[in-house]
Amino acid sequence: MANKRTLKKNIAYACGDVAGVCVFSEKLQNADPEKVAQIIVNIASLQAATKKNVSFSFDRTPKDFDNSKAYRAARSKYFRTAYATLKKDFDESLGEIINDINKLSKE
Known about the structure:
The chain is mainly alpha-helical. About 80% of the residues lie in helices and about 0% in strands. Helix 1 packs parallel to helix 3 (about 70-105).
């Protein structure tokens, strides 16, 4: 991850692309506008929640550790785990939304 700003922009781009696909499926496949609107609301709430969860902090200080190497290792592990969880949750939620869009085209 380069930085939080880039991550937030990528989240917005991904959600925007999925919303665009949803709108295209409404126009091209005559999908139910109410269902499409609900999916777009779900995409927007996913984007807002994920962007909000991008910022978190390590709750310990260097004084809590024996040396700075142990602190850096624990901090690095914490952030790797936190970002992996964020990515997993985002991917799962986006997958559910994409399945909902696919169901639109089958109706």
